[in-house]
Amino acid sequence: MESLSIPVPHKVPFRQGGVWIQQAFFLVREQPLTWLLFAAMYGMIQLTVAALPVVGQFLSMVSVPVFAGGFVLAAAKAMRGEQLRPLDLFLMLKPHWQRLVMLGIAYFGLLVLLLMMMAVLLLLLFGDTLQTGQAFERSPVLMLLLTLLMGGSLFVASLSYWFAPAEIVLREGEPLPAMRYSARAGMANWGAMLYCGLILAVLFGLALLPFGLGLLLWLPVMFVTVFMAWHDVCGEGMPRHR
């Protein structure tokens, strides 16, 4: 049940999306080796889980909110000026991991539902032309609109997840209420969220060069950006860098 004490999300200008990333980088820079270690552990675990037959991809996706919660808790600890320890990514998760797993399952279910709805819509509009590959030639404008609709739907779905791990680990929220609150906060700040996502996407492309080594920095910055966004929109406002 959602608490009445949870504050109404703040509405921030779109440029805050870039400020969140900047503040996240500043925080990571204060204890870089520990954050790089967190990223390396996360990457190795995810690669190992994803390699499992049959259920690997599902388990990998469901586990993302668990690690997101760990990074959020580590970011909150670092913001308080405390020293991070190598195992903090796991040790601080003990009271929260079950709700974070349920969040991952709920988000996975939401994505599957959206994809099924899009598939049904495509079948209703184009039918047999999908099998012959003539759907786009038949109505390119309609296909473009469907592509935009799908992209917009996935973006809205991502807003229902973005703040949810922080709501669970920092406010003891439950998965579904946390997703509803995240959607509410995200929709109120969709411009900043989109701007932040675009910058992170560009940085992700740069992080892949050379040999993906930049991901060791991109991953903690990305996860800490989630905390900075939550703190700004759902918490006490934009924290000042010490």
TrEMBL record:
Membrane-spanning ranges: 33-52, 58-79, 100-126, 141-164, 185-209, 215-233
The keyword Transmembrane helix belongs to this UniProt entry's keyword annotation: yes
Keyword entries, A-Z: Membrane, Transmembrane, Transmembrane helix
Record's protein name: DUF975 family protein
Lineage start: Bacteria, Pseudomonadati, Pseudomonadota, Betaproteobacteria, Neisseriales
